[in-house]
Amino acid sequence: MIYTQPIFVILFERILGAKVPTRAIVGVILGVLGLTLSITSASLDFGILIALMGGISWAIGTVYYSRNLKSDDIAKLNAFMSLFSLPITLAITPLDFYFVFTPITLVLLITLGVLGQALGYIFWFNAIREMGSIKASAGSLLVPIAAYVLSFLTIGAVPSFGEALGSFITLCGIFITVTSRK
């Protein structure tokens, strides 16, 4: 549900008066439908609602950044995002459930946070700056597809027919969106 974010980006951009090409709208809808098809086990529960709220908040942040912060320093924005997310993450992470703290675990968590989050934000902010909010958000639909591919390459998990078909449809939707004109 977090990957409904591109739909909300389009919705918020339209509400704020942006002209959104029909081709981009069709591409995003096709991409999200493809992901929906590729999901083999989903039921409406509290986790789905949290993910939907995540998609909405991600869309709000994407549109806000594209309209107000595009020219700001990415390193500064990255540091702010990290400082903002740390207390929230610490508050909602039940430490005794997910992992046991050891010095190695702590080093790995810091490394993951610095590399994963820092690089992720740098790529994300640059994508919005270079492509715009709608095309960048459509590109985020590649993440689940990359997960299927990497699962196959690393552990040999063969995607189901629905996952493969949904991924193909999503790729078509992304292509339609990123090749649309302003």
UniProtKB/TrEMBL annotation:
Has the keyword Transferase been applied to this entry? no
Can you name this protein?
EamA domain-containing protein
Q: Report the transmembrane regions from the record.
A: 20-40, 46-65, 77-95, 101-124, 136-158, 164-180
* Localisation per UniProt entry: Membrane
Write out the GO cellular component annotations: membrane
What is the topology of this protein in the membrane according to its UniProt annotation?
Answer: Multi-pass membrane protein
The record's annotation in InterPro entries points to: AA-Vitamin_Transporters, EamA_dom, EmrE-like
Q: Which UniProt keywords apply?
A: Membrane, Transmembrane, Transmembrane helix
Question: Where is each EamA domain found?
Answer: 46-178
